[in-house]
UniProtKB/TrEMBL annotation:
GO molecular function: DNA binding
Keyword Nuclease: no
Keywords of this entry: DNA-binding, Transcription, Transcription regulation
Species of provenance: Fodinicola feengrottensis
Database matches in InterPro entries: HTH_LacI (IPR000843), LacI/GalR-like_sensor (IPR046335), Lambda_DNA-bd_dom_sf (IPR010982), Peripla_BP_I (IPR028082)
Protein name: LacI family DNA-binding transcriptional regulator
PANTHER family: HTH-TYPE TRANSCRIPTIONAL REGULATOR GALS (PTHR30146:SF109), LACI-RELATED TRANSCRIPTIONAL REPRESSOR (PTHR30146)
Pfam families reported for this sequence: LacI (PF00356), Peripla_BP_3 (PF13377)
Amino acid sequence: MTDDPKPATRKNVAELSGVSGAVVSYVVNGGPRPVSAQTRERVLAAMQELNYRPNAAARALRLRRTNAIGLILPDISNPYFGEFAKAIEDAAFDRGFALILGNSSNDPDREAAQLDSFIDRQVDGLLVISVRRHAELSIVRDAQIPLVVIDQPEKGVDLPTVVIDNYRGARAAVEHLRSHGHRRIGLIGGPPLLPGSRARQAGWRDALNEIGDGQGVQAVAPFTRLGGLEAGLQLLSGPDRPSALFVSSDIQSIGVLRACAQLDLRVPDEVALISFDGTQAAEFTAPPLTVIHQPVDLIATAALDMLLAPTAQHKVVPYTLIPRASCGC
């Protein structure tokens, strides 16, 4: 039985390519001294022949870069956050960065622990959809790590943010339902501590007030299927149920569809629905959901650009209303 061969070292690469160990280091690290194109090709060929892999941890310490970006999400089981994570990973890969994912499970303490972990890893930047107040994210900036928050900005907190226009998107949803003749338009909102949830609620409320003759009832629920089911049963079980609902997320809307089935209510004939997010899952419900679509690829690109080359404190990306059968279109 033979021992496994030892991994190649920088010295081995230097000997095979006929250069010094310092020159190998310059090629691997991109400096600090220039290397001729011919010498560089010779070193790279030796690295490939020996299957030499630089020590990433040691290189990160030398360069003070890890080529890694952290992303903390509230709930990776939510289809929207899953699609968003993929969009961030694709955009990061195109820029030469790896993505490290943290799932806070909507737990503020777990999110705080993950922030500490990413700071200890010295990631090159951090993207967060937070379940805490944004002021509590200042620990990241204190550690001199670039940070972008994917959410509505909080008053009095100076953090760069990228967000969909939650307020106007909610207004557009109500106005679209009103165009179908609905007056009693209910809301299933998200957790009220989240700025995005509050903005969607404000857009729904202001649109109803502007209509003048509109009426609305609301329920607050977690961004889960069960939350949507329970809120749907609450709003749709009584004799004065709304004829239409604006639901703050696709995952809640799936629960609302279940509630409608349990109550023998036909969608959209007896209850019309519009959802916020526009995930792929919304296309495959029965009936397919009309949505306020969040362009995850555009949000991901904007967030990474702001993280890696800060140009703005706050960016709002546009929404799109996609009509399908759940509203009666």
